[in-house]
Amino acid sequence: MLRIGGGIMVAASSYLADRVVPAPEIIHLPPIAVGREGALVLESGPGVARATKTRPGGLRGLARRLLGRDTPSTPIEAPDGRMVFDLRTRSPENWAHFLNNHLPLVFHACDVAGLDWNQTLLALPARTPGHILKAAALFGFETLATDAPVSGRVVRFSAEPWIAIRSRRADWARLPAVDAALRAAGVRGGPEDGTGAGRRVFISRRDSRKLANEAEVMALLTARGHTRIYAEDLTPAEQMRLVEEAEEIVAIHGAALAPLLYRSGGARLRRLVELFPCGHVTNVYRAMAEQVGVEWIGVRGRIRPEHIAPAYDFSKPFDRYSLQDFEIDPAALETAFDLLDGADVAGRAQASTGEAS
Hints:
This protein is α/β, with parallel strands linked by helices. It has helices at residues 58-66, 95-113, 130-138, 169-172, 176-184, 214-223, 236-245, 284-292, 305-311, 330-341, 345-353; strands spanning 2-4, 7-14, 23-29, 32-34, 39-49, 76-77, 83-86, 120-124, 143-145, 150-160, 200-204, 226-230, 248-252, 271-276, 295-300. The protein folds into 2 domains: 2-34 and 198-353, Rossmann fold; 39-51 and 74-160, no CATH class. Strand 14 (271-276), helix 8 and strand 15 form a beta-alpha-beta unit. Helix 2 (95-113) packs parallel to helix 3. The longest helix is centred in the N-terminal third of the chain and has 19 residues, at 95-113. The chain is globular, with a radius of gyration of 23 Å. The mean pLDDT is 89.
């Protein structure tokens, strides 16, 4: 496990902290442990790697079988004696999971085995999105997207619990081979401002977990010199370059922050302001920011009436509103910037209201 220091999150202006003077709440987050004690097991040898994803049941599964689209059973032979890393577990279709979990495991395994990346083949699910395949290619890995068994020299891994690797993955992403691959891809050591995004960036979202009052928030961010971008409009290389070239990133929590793990020691990025809806507040990128040397502060969205009861029901996870659109209070965001800048927020509030703390 790895210990991460305390942090700060700013919540929307309300009467919750003071029933007379509405103001943003400043929440002091306690230190946390990253990962858990566990075991990572890597095994290799001749064999057959089979996709572990469960076949769909019900009408969908019946339709797939009738149309001949069920999981293939005939093994595919790995070409050229490649070492096959079977990555078809633990949601590799997710961009963040692939960049932050699966690839670091491959880096580590290749490092301890003294294996060149061009000797490997990454087995991924048949429906793996193209941007994930491009991310693998960015690092110089060949991929095979299939649900069929793959025979050859197979590397299998197990990590119990899975989150145990969070304490080490930043180390694996800093291996010399990773730096060499990113330099070869032009992510590091090349021309600056490859994304055209500028020094201050706001990473927004289009499909889910969107800012309902984005125009209001953008007025504040534009005045501070932020440029709005959408991660899906950038190539994998441009997304990786973003954490090298931007000095400050404001971002809605999501997979667009996955490249943060690959920030180099010479990167310009110094500050990350992470925007959360009430229904999805996590420590993932807070911890990652500390691991890679970036100052972090969180800003939580406005509470809605439907959030209250489930937030205090500890019998089940509070995940019903994870992808819900939300509003960020501009006053809370401005307070977050002030805290990053070292401003005397409490003293300023006292002076403006005439109230004693």
